[in-house]
Amino acid sequence: MPNRMSRRLAGLFLPATLAFSYGLAVAQGPYHVQDKWKIGGDGGWDYLAVDPQSSLLYITRGNHVMVVDTTSGKAVADITGLKGTHGVAFDMDGKTGYISDGASNAVAVFDRASNKITQTIPAGTNPDGILFEPSTRTVWAFNGRSKNATVIDARTKQVVATVPLSGKPEFPVADGKGSVFVNIEDKNEIAHIDAKTRTVLAEWPIGCESPSGHAIDVANNRLFAVCDGKKMAVVDAGTGKVVATPAIGEGPDAAAYDSSTHNAFSSNGEGTLTVVHEDSPDSYSVLQDLPTQRSARTMALDPKTGKIYVVAAEFGPRPAATPENPRPRPPVLPGSFVVIVISK
After folding, report:
1. Residue 326 host element (H or E)
2. How far apart are CA 89 and CA 180, in angstroms?
3. Model-level pTM?
């Protein structure tokens, strides 16, 4: 992190009481856990998304998607009839949503008023990350196993292109002006895609391992990719240059950026939320590593309120490995799934 050494040196010359107060302030930071909602339900989870119109929280839970009212903390709907969900994206029309259903190799279209599936569109193999690109009115589903992106016209709900990629895509972001950026996890790169021509313009090495979560600061043209090795790569979205690598927690899987505070976030499986402040487009400092709960590695930011939602659960013993499943996951304990609400 760029300012860590200067902070250490400055601390040597502070009076003892002032140094203690400064250290305590950094440890506490501006964010706190406001609430914890016990949602329950069986099975694991993947990405979360906040509907920008309704502020409902959508949580992918395997073969269904839970919908949570963020004012009450209660589950208000369940989108069923799916097989293996990953992400949720929202059309700018305020009416339509899209779910990447990886196990079905499809994108499910749903009505946001009724939370009912209205249509299923074939995609590539195991669609995972998904986004709505506003300038072209297209939906992009990034297929992890077939290493490509399925492009869907939001007006006609028809597939209009398949864009090949050089490796396994993870989470995508868009700048709203026709550029789509996606982490290529197995190549430690970011691919820059022109949404209008549906072509890959560049692939940028970012110098960190297995980039997963991804966020964007549109105003300053900066990308935030969270990686293994406790590193966030801050990348110039015009040139692909890595401008900073602030330290984050272990096991991240999601990132977010709040334009009102100029803070970027990494949710980490070790049980922390790292808050990184954008001091300038090329300078970043870690404000806080907020304790959350172990396994809380995906999140969503509500841009209206600035609140952050992470999810976690308690786990039982890991099953014995078998030839069919050499790396089994420990089971989620029934009823232990929670949404953790974080606010300033």
Report:
1. none
2. 14
3. 0.90
